[in-house]
Design brief:
Length: about 650
């Protein structure tokens, strides 16, 4: 394995940025951010152009982030209408259904315009207007993109809930944002199996404090429990509305969407993104990070339920007039060649996926890749968690045949778009490093305890960002104090990412993973507190502590220590019952991989659980537990070690 891969000269010549351009633009972007973004804010069509550019403060107690504040625009018009004259007949969205044998759909910009206008008029019929919240609980179908853009068109705020989440998780999100309408489908086919989404919505509404109307997309045609009141079929309503819907003039700082994400406490946070800054940043990162050019076919394999789908399936690519692929299925159905079959079939130029998918496919060997012609690939991307050098190398050699640059993009739901990433024509890559900051991003490494800036290279500590960028989240929905407390309190004057990192002698960033009680399971963020509160909600559970442990495919697996109520007997049956319970409470991604029954948990005398010890035992690294003398009952540790579940 080589240490470093230079961009190839041919690519660098044709790219939006070669090394000299990156260096120059980066310097400009941090020396005078307002001037830099005044220029790049122009990539959008403004109804009323902005005159104010950057008004941001990271001062704890007064955190306020505003970009392009006095400008007005419409996000949907930027993603659709402004392309009509030049590329009305170009494909905007290619939809690839779950079944490989079913026909793909090609939706042109003109067709997209008609679909979105109709959808927007249906929402208006249901009483949705500017500022109202609409929850989307949908499969990966074109209507998910139509619904997002329809909300944007009329100034409503969408909040997508991943279709893999449980009815309870859905109900919590509907309640937190007080949704007026929930958009769902009859069923969601994925990997050959169908989830009855409408059933889940019905269950969620039983436990919800709100009474939203439910708009249903017909995807499978299966039988559903259609309620006499409050349920509407999309196709029936569409037949009654016109396809003329002028876009609303929105302020740059009007909210575009809310997306819930796990943190270190039990309750997911509603991350709020606004219109102008978010769209400019999503579009610009999409263009530069993937070196996207007119005519390219771009494929991000994420689900629109995650921020990656928002920024790099819908908003970034469509703002750039791209052809973007929406894939309903999974990487291994009907077989492990599906990704590559789709790449060949639609002549994909940029392909963007997660390390967990790469590792899963790596395990199936090279034959499923070699079956297909991947010669149209120009850039390969990865996101979601640190990529191990073995997976990076496999991606590079087997998929990219050693000729396609890899962009390892580090970012978060909160950041709206890439913050640390190579640019294909500019940045020499090192397997496992997200490399260098994007334009306008000022990363700093801080000493975890003291918060002091670690100057010079190499450096190690926690990762923070010293100044705002247009794609940054603005607040936590309904709780600005929580926003400040989560991101700006611990290290004053900085945005704290929650990640640890190392900066090497060349100034390259290497993300080492979360330093808070958040774990990363298959590239999905899971607050350990959320899993714990699901476990203790079970009648047989007295106490629970959840930690991550290294997992070959998922990156991290979920390891739960459970103390049972008096009189309850540990058994394999009960383990399964508890795992299924968590799956039902939160969703399949939260299901514990390993459960250990523990008569007691290691606690300090003041009653704080010592997670450091639990992490070590879960890692099977129990020889180096460090100081256990401050524990109230040191002997519980012996039992935990003896009965550890991860014996590798
Ligand atoms: C966390 C954010 C951003 C879209 C997907 C996840 C981890 C993300 C990388 C990367 C190392 C990464 C971080 C981050 N992460 N990308 N390229 N290298 N770690 O969004 O659910 O908000 O999670 O994912 O730990 O904090 P998210």
């Amino acid at each position: 394995m080589k240490d470093s891969y230079e961009p190839n000269a041919e690519m660098a010549r044709a790219a939006h940025a070669d090394k000299a351009t990156y260096d120059r633009m980066y310097a400009e972007s941090v020396e005078d951010p307002a001037a830099f973004w005044a220029e790049h804010g122009k990539r959008l069509d403004w109804i009323k152009p902005f005159t104010r550019v950057k008004e941001t403060s990271f001062d704890f107690g007064n955190v306020s982030i505003r970009w392009f504040e006095d400008g007005t625009l419409n996000v949907a018009a930027n993603c659709i209408d402004r392309h009509l004259a030049e590329r009305g007949d170009q494909t905007a969205i290619i939809w690839e259904p779950d079944e490989a044998g079913d026909e793909a759909q090609h939706i042109s910009y003109r067709q997209l315009h008609a679909h979105v206008c109709k959808f927007a008029n249906v929402l208006k019929e249901l009483g949705v207007g500017r500022g109202d919240r609409v929850v989307l609980y949908l499969p990966m179908i074109p209507q998910a993109a139509y619904a997002m853009l329809a909300c944007a068109r009329i100034g409503a705020v969408h909040s997508i809930v991943f279709a893999g989440f449980s009815p309870d998780a859905l109900a919590n999100r509907i309640d937190d944002c007080q949704a007026k309408v929930v958009i769902t489908a009859d069923g969601a086919p994925r990997g050959g199996r169908v989830t009855n989404l409408k059933d889940n919505v019905n269950k969620a509404l039983v436990n919800s404090n709100e009474d939203p109307k439910v708009l249903i997309v017909k995807r499978t045609g299966q039988q559903i429990a259609f309620r006499a009141e409050g349920d509407y079929w999309l196709h029936e309503m569409e037949a009654q509305v016109s396809n003329d819907c002028p876009p609303e003039e929105m302020g740059a700082e009007d909210p575009l969407f809310i997306l819930y994400t796990s943190g270190s406490t039990g309750k997911p946070k509603g991350v709020v993104h606004t219109s102008g800054g978010y769209l400019a940043y999503a579009a610009m990162t999409h263009q530069y990070t993937f070196d996207y050019h007119d005519g390219d076919v771009f494929w991000c394999t994420a689900d629109v339920g995650w921020v990656t789908g928002h920024s790099y399936i819908v908003y970034g690519p469509l703002a750039n007039g791209a052809t973007t692929i929406m894939f309903e299925g999974v990487p291994t159905y009907p077989d492990a060649g599906r990704f590559w079959a789709v790449c060949e079939k639609h002549r994909v130029n940029q392909f963007y996926t997660a390390p967990t998918a790469i590792r899963a496919l790596m395990g199936k060997g090279t034959e499923p890749v070699e079956r297909y012609d991947l010669s149209d690939l120009k850039v390969l991307g990865t996101v979601g968690e640190p990529i191990n050098p073995e997976a990076w190398t496999w991606y590079n050699e087997v998929v990219g045949k050693g000729r396609v640059p890899i962009v390892d993009t580090w970012w978060q739901t909160e950041t709206g778009g890439h913050l640390i990433t190579p640019l294909p024509g500019a940045t020499a890559t090192k397997p496992g490093s997200a490399t260098l900051p994007f334009f306008g991003i000022r990363p700093v490494v801080l000493e975890a305890e003291s918060g002091k800036v670690v100057e010079g290279n190499p450096a190690e500590g926690v990762l923070a960002i010293a100044d705002s960028w247009p794609g940054q989240m603005r607040t936590v929905w309904g709780d600005h104090d929580r926003f400040e407390a989560t991101y700006f309190q611990q290290y004053k004057g900085y945005y704290f990412t929650g990640d640890g990192c190392r900066r090497d002698e060349d100034g390259y960033y290497w993300i080492t993973g979360r330093v808070d009680d958040v774990i990363n399971v298959s590239g999905h963020r899971m607050g350990t507190a959320e899993v714990e509160s699901a476990l203790v909600a079970h009648e047989k559970v007295a106490e629970a502590a959840v930690v991550g442990y290294p997992h070959d495919v998922k990156g991290q697996g979920i390891y739960a220590y459970v103390t049972l109520m008096g009189g309850q007997e540990p058994s394999d049956g009960l383990k399964k019952e508890l795992a299924d319970w968590v799956r039902q409470e939160i969703g399949p991604i939260a299901k514990p991989d390993l459960i250990q029954f523990a008569p007691g948990l290691p606690k300090t005398r003041s009653g704080k659980i010592m997670r450091r010890i639990l992490r070590k035992i879960a890692e099977n690294d129990y020889g180096a537990l460090g100081d256990t003398s401050t524990l109230a009952e040191p002997e519980v540790v012996d039992d935990l070690i003896e009965n550890r579940q991860n014996r590798r």
